[in-house]
Amino acid sequence: MIRIEVDGTPLEVAEGSNLLATCLAAGIYIPNLCYMAESPEPFAGCRLCFVEIQGQPAPVTACTVAVTDGMVVHTATAPVRRLQQSAFRLLVSAHQITADCPAHKRCALQQVARHLQMGLKPKPLERVPRELEIDTSPPCFDLHPARCVLCGKCLRACQERNGSSLLTFARRGIQTVISAQGLSADGQEFTCEGCLACAAVCPVSAITPKADSGHCAGEGQGHADPQAAGS
Ligand code: SF4
Ligand code: FES
Predict the structure, then answer these.
(1) 42: Cβ–Cβ under 8 A, 6 or more apart, which residues?
(2) What is the four-CA torsion angle of 144, 145, 146, 150, rounded to 10 degrees?
(3) Given a cut of 70, is residue 227 above it in pLDDT?
(4) Which of 3, 62, 102, 145 has the greatest CB tally within 10 Å of its CB?
(5) How does DSSP assign 64-86, residue by residue?
(6) In which band, very low, low, confident or very high, does the pLDDT at 228 lie, cut at 50, 70 and 90?
(7) Ligand 2: centre distance to CA 181 (Å)
(8) Which of 48, 178, 223 for a ligand 1 pocket mutation test, highest count of atoms within 8 Å of Cβ?
């Protein structure tokens, strides 16, 4: 075991542990949307989990750091907050909020907004207009690309569960969307077996099990966000 300090709190942890996971387990919340403890490589796509580590010239993403003995970490400095707020603004600029969202009031995005003391609705000039249809073609779930924050968790969950991801990102830049179209792009049949691992990890209910998905072997009968503990 080694000792580190986070916001003045001494912690005893296993050497090499992931810094973000360590803080969350200790009840120290750091905003995060894309971290998955079970993933071998961090995706580091949401850019929300910035922290300052004493001795390092600039803030770093906590999900990509392994703890070392004597590490001193600050999670709420002004530079950290500026980076987190910029990342959050970008995320909500393209995220559609609807009253019927099943993640309403328990969504990971709302938790981040509360922590950063920011609103969920972008200013009119910051809004990226995207008219995105709900895709009801998958047999066991519906895709709501307008809700998606592109965290990549569903792709990695599917990859880990099934050997390759049946979901994909389509288009580029600010028009990037989560898509099930890749499933049949090469003319093959849709091979989703309905494990619903994707729906289980989605932090914003952008993947919802079909109401009649009883025939699917699913584990994702609703929103779950195991990485959001400690707020
Ligand atoms: S559908 Fe959900 S889990 Fe997949 S990338 Fe979008 S927000 Fe992340
Ligand atoms: S970049 Fe670290 S949790 Fe997303």
Answers:
(1) 18, 34, 35, 61, 63, 64
(2) 130
(3) no
(4) 62
(5) G-B--TT-EEESS-HHHHHHHHH
(6) very low
(7) 26
(8) 178
- The beta strand positions in the chain, using DSSP E, are 2-6, 9-13, 50-53, 60-61, 72-74, 141-143, 168-170, 177-179, 207-209
Q: What is the pLDDT of residue 183?
A: 56
Task: Calculate the CA 44 to chain-centre distance.
Answer: 9
Q: Is the CB of 48 under 6 A from ligand 2?
A: yes
Q: Assign 138 a pLDDT band (cuts: 50, 70, 90).
A: confident
Q: Which residue has the higher pLDDT, 186 or 46?
A: 46
Site to probe by mutation for ligand 2, drawn from 23, 29, 46 as the one with most ligand atoms within 8 Å of Cβ, is 46
For tokens 């990342």, name the residue: 87
